[in-house]
Amino acid sequence: MIPLVIIDDHPAILAGVQAWCAAADPPIDVVAAGPDVSAAWVEPGRSVPVVLFDLQLGGSVPAYADLRRLVDAGRQVVVYSMRDDARTVLTCLDIGAFTYLTKAEGRRHLIAAVHAAADGRPYVSPSLAGAMGINGRSDRPALAPRETDVLLEWFRCESKDMVAQRLGLSARTVASYIDRARIKYANTGRPAPTKAALVARAVQDGLIRLDEL
Amino acid sequence: MAELGPALIADRFLRNLRLAVLGVLAAVLLCWTLPTMLMFTAVYRPAWLEVASFAVLAAVAGLVAIIVLRGRPWGWLRWPLTLTAVCASAAGTAAVPAADLISSAHWSWEVTGWYAVLLFLDRPVGWLAGVLTGHLGVTALGIVVAGRTDAQVFVAMATVTLVVGGWQLAIGLAAAALRRSASSATRIAAQEEQIRTAEAVADQVHSDRRSRYLDLGTTTTPLLAGLAAGELNPADPAVRRACAIEAGRLRRLFAESDETADPLRHEVQACIDLAERRGIEVQLAVLGERPTVPQPARRALTEPLLAVLARALRTARITLVGLPGQLILSVVAEVAADLGDHDPAELVAGRIAAELVAGRIAAELGADHAAGRMPPGDADHVTVSWLARGTAVWAEATWTEPP
C-alpha cells in the first residue's frame, strides 16, 4: 500500500482520484484528503511522503508558497492543476515539485506519477515534457538537441512506442532521454530535497554520470 | 497609396512659396541692401555697427536658406532666428543718425519683415502680423529714443509699412489659403481612398465566397446529391465518415471568416466542437509562441486533423506547438479499423493527408506500424507526416515559415 495525501478544493475531484487510487495496482491508500494544505500538515497526513497538490486552491493565484513549504519539508509533491502554460509548469519545477500533471492528463498519468514518486523514480508527464522542451529561458539546463526533440514528440503523442518508431530509437532509449532531461532540470534552479533525491537516484541507477551534471 | 496628412500636402504647397520668398529676400539683400549700405558707409555712427547688423542678417539669411532648401521644418530654431533678425534690425536702426532715419540709409527695418514672412509662413497669419507689428514697435522705439518725434518721420514710416508690410501680409494670407485647400484636399483624398478600399474589400469578399462555394462544390455537393438521390446509404460507415469530414469542413469554413485574435486556434476549436458532439473526448494542449500563419496554410494544417477526428473512436489528443519559424499541429487518436474502402488513387490534392492515413492504415493493419510523409505544397508550406500503430494514428502537419 502506497500512502498518499490529496489536497484539492473540488469534492468531485477528491472523490474521483480516491476511486482511481483504490483501483490502482499496487493500490494507493489515501490517508488524508482535504480542501486546503492543512491536511498535509496534521496527522495522519503529516507523515505521508507523497502529496497530490492542486495548485489552484480557492483563489486565482497559484499556491506557490504552500508548494515551497511542502517541498522544503522533503515531501514528494505531484502538482495537479487546471493550468497548462509552460511558465507555471517551469515555476513548479524550479520550486522542486516532483512532477506536474494537468487535470486533462490526470487519468492516464496520475497513478503512474504517484507510483514513481513513492519509488523515487523521475516521472515526466506530457505537459512537463512540453514545458521543458519549449523552455526559452536563459537559465535552462543545456539539453542535447535529441533530448529536446524527444521531449516535444512525447508531449505531442503521449506514446513512447510511437516516438521511438518515428525517431528510429528503442522505447527504452526514448524513456531514458526523457528521464535524463528531467534530471538535468532537477540539478538546476533552487536546491530542494526532492530534487536532490531525484539526482542521487538517477546517478545510482546509472541513468546519468556525475560529470554530465 | 501612402497616407498623406494635411500637413504633408500643405508642405508641398508651401515649399514653392517659401522658395519664392527666399528668392525675394536674397534679391533684396544682395541687390538693394548691400549697395545701399556701402553707399552710405560714411553716414553711419558707428559704421561697424551697421556692417555688423548687415553681416548678422546675411548670416541668418544663409541659415534660413539652408533650412528651406533642405525642406526641413523650423522646429525650435524659429524663435531664436526671429529674435536675432529683429535685434540685428534694431542695431541697424541705432547706427543711423537721427537726420537720416527717413532716408534710404535706414534700410534695415524694411528688410527684416521678409524674415518674418519666411519664418511664419506655416503658422496662422496672426503670428506673422504679430511679429511684423512687434518689429515695427521696436523700430519706432529706436527712432523715438534717437530724438525724432516729428510728423515727417512717422508719415514716412507709415508709407513704408503700408507698401512693404502690405506685400508681406498678402503672402502670409496666400499661405493660409493654401493650407486651407491642403486640408480639404486631404479630406477628399481620404474619402476617395475609403471608397476604393470598400470596393476592394467587397471584391475580395465576393471572390472569397465564390472560391468557398467552389471548394464545397467538389466535396460537399456530390455527397449531398448522393444522399438526396438515395445512391448513398446513410447507414454505411464510410458515408457517415464522409459526412463527418464535410461537416468539419463547413464548420472550419464558417470559423475562417470570424474575426478572432488567434484564427488558427479558433479553427482548430471548430474542428474539435464537432468531434465532441460525436461523444469523443478531445484533449487540446497548446505550447510555445505561435507565429501568424496565413489562411491557405491554416487550411492545410487542419486538414489531417479533420480526417483523423472524423474517424476517431473515443479519445483524441491535439497539440499545437509553436517553435521559432515553425508550427506543428498534431493529433493522436484511436481510429476505427474498418477503413479499407478508400482508394488512395481517388485522392484529390487538397484532401491528401487524411485519406492517405486512412488508406494506409487499412492496408497495413497487419503490420506493426506504418508511416509516411507528404512534402509541402507550393502555396501552403505545410508538411504532413503520419504514423499508424495498431489502431492508433498520429498525424502531424508542420508549417514552416517561408524564407
Give a summary of the structure in a few sentences.
By secondary structure, chain A is α/β, with parallel strands linked by helices.
What would you say this structure looks like, in words?
- The complex is a heterodimer of chains A (213) and B (403).
- Helices cover 49% and strands 13% of the residues of chain A.
- Chain A is α/β, with parallel strands linked by helices and 213 residues long.
- In chain A, strands 2-1-3-4-5 form a 5-stranded parallel sheet, sandwiched between helices.
- The longest helix of chain A has 16 residues, at 171-186.
- The radius of gyration of chain A is 16 Å and the shape is globular.
- Chain B is α+β, with helices and mostly antiparallel strands and 403 residues long.
- A 6-stranded mixed sheet of chain B has the order 1-2-3-6-5-4, with helices on one face.
- The longest helix of chain B is centred in the middle third of the chain and has 79 residues, at 151-229.
- The radius of gyration of chain B is 41 Å and the shape is rod-shaped.
- Classes of the chains: A alpha/beta (213), B alpha+beta (403).
- Chain A binds chain B through residues 84, 86, 102, 104-105, 126-127, 130-131, 134, 152, 155-159, 161-162, 165-166, and chain B through 283, 285-288, 317, 319, 321, 323, 328, 330, 332, 369, 371, 387, 389, 392, 394, 396.
The outline of chain A comes out as globular
Order of helices and strands of chain B: HHHHHHHHEHEEHEEE
In the predicted model, the low-confidence regions of chain A spanning at least 5 consecutive residues are: none
Count of the separate structural domains of chain B: 2
Name of the level-1 CATH class of chain A? Alpha Beta
- Helix run count of chain B: 10
Order of helices and strands of chain A: EHEEHEHEHHHHHH
Low-confidence stretches of chain B: 338-353, 362-366
The number of distinct structural domains of chain A comes to: 1
